[in-house]
Amino acid sequence: MRIVIADDHSLFRDGLRSLLGAAGHEVVAEAKNGREAVQLARQHKPEVVLMDLSMPEVNGLEATRLIAAEMPDVKVIMLTASDDDANLFESIKSGAQGYLLKNLEADDFFAMLDRAERNEPALTPVLARKLLQEFAKPADTTTAASVTAGEEDPDALTSREREVLELMVEGVTSNRRLAKRLNLSENTIKFHVRNILDKLHLHNRAEVVGYALRNKIV
Question: What are the φ/ψ torsions at residue 42 (nearest 5 degrees)?
Answer without folding.
Answer: -65, -40
